[in-house]
Amino acid sequence: MPAVSKGDGMRGLAVFISDIRNCKSKEAEIKRINKELANIRSKFKGDKALDGYSKKKYVCKLLFIFLLGHDIDFGHMEAVNLLSSNKYTEKQIGYLFISVLVNSNSELIRLINNAIKNDLASRNPTFMCLALHCIANVGSREMAEAFAGEIPRILVAGDTMDSVKQSAALCLLRLYKTSPDLVVMGEWTSRVVHLLNDQHMGVVTAAISLITCLSQKNPDEFKTCVSLAVSRLSRIVSSASTDLQDYTYYFVPAPWLSCKLLRLLQCYPPPEDGAVKGRLVECLETILNKAQEPPKSKKVQHSNAKNAILFEAISLIIHYDSEPNLLVRACNQLGQFLQHRETNLRYLALESMCTLASSEFSHEAVKTHIETVINALKTERDVSVRQRAADLLYAMCDRSNAKQIVAEMLSYLETADYSIREEMVLKVAILAEKYAVDYSWYVDTILNLIRIAGDYVSEEVWYRVIQIVINRDDVQGYAAKTVFEALQAPACHENMVKVGGYILGEFGNLIAGDPRSSPLVQFNLLHSKFHLCSVPTRALLLSAYIKFINLFPETKPTIQEVLRSDSQIRNSDVELQQRAVEYLKLSSIASTDVLATVLEEMPPFPERESSILAKLKKKKGPGALPVSELEEGKREGGGELNGGADRGNDMSAAASNASTPSPSTDLLGLRSAAAIGSAGPSTGSLLVDVFSEAGPTALSSGVNDEGFLRDLEPPTESSDSLLIEAPGESDSEDSAPPLPESDELLNKFVCKNNGVLFENQLLQIGIKSEYRQNLGRMYLFYGNKTSVQFLNVQTKPVEPLVEGGAQVQQVINIECLTDFSEAPLLNIKFRYGGALQNITLKLPVTINKFFQPTEMASQDFFQRWKQLNLPQQEAQKIFKASHGMDIELLKTKLLGLGCALLENVDPNPENFVCAGVIQTKAQQVGCLLRLEPNAQAQMYRLTLRSSKDTVSKRLCELLAEQF
Amino acid sequence: MMRFLLLFSRQGKLRLQKWFTPLAERDKKKIIRDMTMMVLPRAPRSCNFLHWRDLKIVYKRYASLYFCCGLDDKDNELLALEVLHRYVELLDKYFGNVCELDIIFNFEKAYFILDEFLMGGEVQETSKLLVAKSMEESDMLQETMEEYMNKPAF
């Protein structure tokens, strides 16, 4: 045990830590910890009041145990007691404990807030700082509510000590980030800007973080900070290294402050005032010049600090993107770093150049470094540097160098690290598509991709190559020939078999003239791979075979033979068996005409954003912390509009002509794609509905993360029951009345959250939405189905232009204030061919979206059911089944409704009962539901009971349309 | 803004964890696991920066301890590297030739020093003198060695 040299060690704590360290095994450690916990618990429970020191020591031990990774479920109260101690060390430990182990226990939060309030009022700077730190560390909404008003006062008060000002500034920043609505702008804001002029460098350093964040959100209010920041920066840049005393870091004057100033300036466009701008350009030039000067110290800290400023300056230059001279200098500087002996600098240079590559002024300059970058890709020892090199190659790629870059990336793939292969594959696929001059090159590239890195070729990539081949007549023959050749390889990747099967099934006829690839040869080649493939691929191959029968009648006997074999027609896999049976039957009873119609060539796919691009974006995704959002799999729930998803739906819809749709699988084995995507064109088929339903459970968990709520912007006021910011609502007098079908469209969304809301020849509106308690967020995707641009899209939050075939997204935040029956209206206006299109739809926001499921036992259910016995609390409807009575489908719909489906509650197992709470801001409404199907009569009786009559009534209306 | 700072040993033992945004315990554990798994196997002279999800990871090894932090996408990696270094300097100034054991046995001090230097993931005070002074002042409010030795050992 080392001697504790400073301050107040706690001897008992040191002994305990030392014991833990001496434990030989995990079990021994747990035993020791349990012993200690028992000891502490008995001390806390004991009759004898503990003195402050012991309390501090035990709380500290608990903290240590927690930090070792064990759960702590007591001691919070003692820690709170420590807060009100007037001994500094006790208070400090109390605050540390609270900061690390925040408890959502509201009782406790009130006590903590009380202690903080006292310390803030104490005028003792040390205590005030401790309290401010605690607020910043916890940063909860309750704390923001309690202190967001007080802290700005402390920050700008004339008599506040410097150290307290620093803490107050950063504490306020923290609260502003978590609860921006609670930090009210006021008189203090103008005074905060002037902290940039404060004499104390530490105060400026802390304050500038706050100012930067506030400026990002309210640029106009903080405009004056630009000139202040420029003059402060200019003073630092031109100062000698000794001027700033302790704020000089390894001979670099105030590197932190300089970087923060440069970052603040990146919130604004270049200064309009000529003098300010001149001064700033001078600063930037000085920084670039200094990079060429010999270092003042050999220490890495010196060069790091100096280059940190340099990179931040380059970021600002790139942000302005208006000074060609500075941009080219920046690019040259980065070019030097590309070959620097410091790995870190090479890494950062590659990273910075990625952004430079997108500027028109420097794109060409970046391209001159292509050989160096390719070399880095080949020779860097560190995978993270190689990855940056690959990123840069991707960024600098254009038509002129695409073939070279794609070839280099392909050859790198053969040896690339496993961790980055999938991303590399996506990038190669995107570049190949984007810059394809001739599509045979594109097909070659993708097939090479599959050959080299088949395992990393995601579904999106091979879907995409098929989409493109189907949409381009000129490449179909070549594609058929190439896949045929690729399949000759003795071992080829399963993805190759999929692509091969699909393409030969569609276009095998184009190469059938050559005896070397006659229909039977093609079939035998495909079938030789069959037994090595997984079920989905086999299913796809079976579909290819039936297409062969249509393309080449001469193969019919051979293929029927195969379908008839026991291994197909009695396959243990239901899907394969079904296909074999149905295809066999189809081929033997259908006339050639029918066969030709059913198995017609796939129609061209609608042009839209590449599904792979969407995948890459998703990979890079908005996966910011909070990390729960990032958990793999959860994101699966949030479908996205992409070609891949559409493909699944298109194909299942097309294939349903040929075979009975089964609710769980689609015919071409693309189920997974369909389940992810949920916004394909609505064909109105059962199949599509079921697929869209596949999401709700996953979605609800996806929604359950804090980031969702945190990011939620404060909704705007509206007199309607529902707070909603829908485009066009403000000028409702010239909006068209809702479309007649809008109610029907609305009903489609009662039990699901994603799908296509509206579609006509011009426009498709897709919807993705998520709800949590009384809040919701809805994404509207406006897809332009025409080939011309939509200009001047009038909804402000949307990009003002929609490219032909492209789509834009709009986000609506929703808060449910009280219960409601009428859905909010969405008005869309645009011009097409000179005619104003005016469409009003009902936004699919219905009261059930705010359901929170409630699980309960049978007894509880019926007890509550009986309690809700007032006649107006019940709503009942008896109606005819309009969709058949498939039990699984009913369950899915009820779950989609948002309430909990309770098993083993109703004595009659045929019946369904559900329970949930509707969350509105005003109140919570408990709802119970009972659905009694009568299979014989094909009728349902639906009964709803809730504590509010309007809710029962509305839910009953909504639901009656669903079954 | 810095999202988190972790100190762990070469064996992957966590010595200090500081989270600047609220996270569920489960998520914290996942990050800790990912960081140690990602950083520990890296070759000695590799670059100090990584991408992880949408965060930038900056780490540096000091003797037996790895200092590792997660940054927002827009943050400056080199500067973060110097934040780590300045923290090490502060620990060193306080403990005098700091080693891993100091941080194990005086973990609360390590947190206090960090709090003086960073707040909410932003640099609060870069002056070494001022941070050290502030730590010293708070130690003045504490007991002497003699008092310490008189304390019960259990």
From TrEMBL, chain A:
Residues 652-665 have a biased composition (Low complexity). GO terms for molecular function: clathrin adaptor activity. Residues 623-666, 702-741 are annotated as: Disordered. It is a peripheral membrane protein. Its main location: membrane. Belongs to the adaptor complexes large subunit family. Component of the adaptor protein complex 2 (AP-2). Adaptor protein complexes function in protein transport via transport vesicles in different membrane traffic pathways. Adaptor protein complexes are vesicle coat components and appear to be involved in cargo selection and vesicle formation. AP-2 is involved in clathrin-dependent endocytosis in which cargo proteins are incorporated into vesicles surrounded by clathrin (clathrin-coated vesicles, CCVs) which are destined for fusion with the early endosome. This is AP-2 complex subunit alpha.
UniProtKB/TrEMBL annotation, chain B:
The keyword Protein transport applies. Keywords: Coated pit, Cytoplasmic vesicle, Golgi apparatus, Membrane, Protein transport, Transport. It is found in: Cytoplasmic vesicle membrane; Golgi apparatus; Membrane, Clathrin-coated pit. Residues 1-140 form the AP complex mu/sigma subunit domain. GO terms for biological process: intracellular protein transport. It is a peripheral membrane protein. It holds the Pfam family Clat_adaptor_s. Its main location: membrane. PROSITE patterns: CLAT_ADAPTOR_S. GO terms for molecular function: clathrin adaptor activity. GO terms for cellular component: AP-1 adaptor complex; clathrin-coated pit. Belongs to the adaptor complexes small subunit family. Adaptor protein complex 1 (AP-1) is a heterotetramer composed of two large adaptins (gamma-type subunit AP1G1 and beta-type subunit AP1B1), a medium adaptin (mu-type subunit AP1M1 or AP1M2) and a small adaptin (sigma-type subunit AP1S1 or AP1S2 or AP1S3). PANTHER family: ADAPTOR COMPLEXES SMALL SUBUNIT FAMILY (PTHR11753). This is AP complex subunit sigma.
